[in-house]
Design a protein that fits this description.
Layout (H helix, E strand, L loop, with lengths): L1 E11 L4 H9 L4 E12 L11 E4 L6 H12 L4 E5 L3 E3 L3 H7 L6 E10 L5 E4 L35 E5 H7 L11 H11 L3 E12 L7 H17 L3 H25 L2 H13 L1 H14 L4 H4 L19 H14 L5
Parallel strand pairs: 1-2, 1-4, 2-3, 6-9
Antiparallel strand pairs: 4-8, 5-9, 6-7, 6-8
Helix pairs in contact: 6-8, 7-8, 8-9
């Protein structure tokens, strides 16, 4: 039977952690171990006493990125699956997801993450990635019946994805500078740059008890990490080509931030990047050295428009999307 390590993080109040653990432990057609990273949970359910559960206690909140890295470092099996603590998988979901890793062209496989209730609606079936590194839950709110088949995806949903341990190690896992948010974008892009694919498996289903929160710390992390991706994942020529559109978009995001009450956090993201410019430069060099394909080889997976659902707090005017799409069409052939 196939052996799989499932990584789950716990922090703060975790009302669904017991249901999440129980569902993973019921997985059929695979032999699972669960690596539970306790980043500071207030209480833990009885399921942690199952002998198949390995508890890792860093002693501090290492964030999503650091927690996943610590969990993966303790994993014993050749395939690793990452599951959010508020996501309840079907009993065949883990087996179906890791089956996609049998294809050597696949680097990451992401599952069908659904919202609670009937009829099933999509939370994410893999996330689009805009060329300015915005990303959002793919096809959010749409009926799952319209997406219960293979679809091309740019990025994983960090709440439910799988990879081989060798792939994780080769990519270096998540960059812990990110702490939380947009690290799944970074990992997905670096997977494409390594000449491997990111795929969606529609039969690997989990129900995510999801609510988009809009606290200001989250906005800081979202914007800082998006800009980290923009500054480090592209080659030099691509960065120069993107500058004429990136700068006005930055001004537009600042206006939206001021109106939304998180302008201070937007400015703090810029300040962090400037104060840590050596980190940015070193990371850009490391990404470039590891790349197996030029920008043109992976840029085809990027979105030309930002079709962000209104629930996520950023609305992009139609005219702006028109300009963004035309600009990308003009420069995309030259970003290698």
């Amino acid at each position: 039977m196939r052996e799989v390590s499932v990584i789950i993080l716990a922090y703060g109040e975790e009302p669904l952690l017991g249901a999440c653990l129980a569902a993973v432990l019921r997985s059929r057609d695979v032999d699972v171990e669960v690596v539970l990273v306790d980043n500071g949970a207030r209480s833990l359910p009885d399921e942690v006493d199952d002998p198949r559960v390995v508890r890792v206690t860093p002693g501090t909140n290492t964030g999503f990125a650091g927690g996943c890295n610590r969990g993966a470092s303790r994993a014993r099996h050749p395939d690793v699956v990452f599951v959010n603590s508020d996501l309840v998988v079907r009993d065949d979901a883990v087996a179906r997801l890791v089956s996609r890793l049998d294809d050597p062209r696949v680097g990451l496989a992401t599952g069908a993450v659904l919202l609670p209730g009937e009829p099933p609606r999509v939370n994410s079936i893999g996330n689009p990635i805009h060329y300015l590194m915005f990303s959002w839950a793919g096809d959010y709110g749409e009926p799952f019946a319209a997406h219960d088949h293979d679809e091309a995806v740019a990025g994983i949903c960090g709440g439910f994805f799988a990879c081989r341990r060798t792939t994780w190690d080769r990519l270096g896992g998540f960059d812990e500078h990110y702490f939380a948010y947009a690290e799944d974008v970074d990992l997905s892009v670096r997977t494409w740059q390594s000449a491997r694919e990111v795929v969606f498996e529609p039969s690997a289903i989990g129900v995510h008890h999801y609510e988009f929160t809009k606290d200001n710390t989250k906005w800081f992390l979202l914007e800082r990490n998006r800009l980290m991706n923009l500054l480090t994942l592209y080659g030099r020529r691509a960065r120069w080509l993107l500058l004429p559109v990136a700068l006005p978009v930055e001004c537009g995001v600042l206006v939206a931030a001021l109106r939304g009450g998180w302008g201070r956090e937007k400015v703090a993201a810029w300040r962090w990047l400037w104060a840590h410019r050596d980190v940015v430069r070193e990371r850009r060099d490391a990404v470039a050295a590891a790349r197996d394909t030029g920008d043109a080889g992976w840029a085809r997976i990027l979105s030309a428009q930002m079709d962000i659902p209104s629930e996520f707090g950023l609305r992009v005017p139609r005219a702006v999307n028109w300009v963004l799409a035309r600009y990308w069409a003009a420069i995309a052939p030259f970003v290698d």
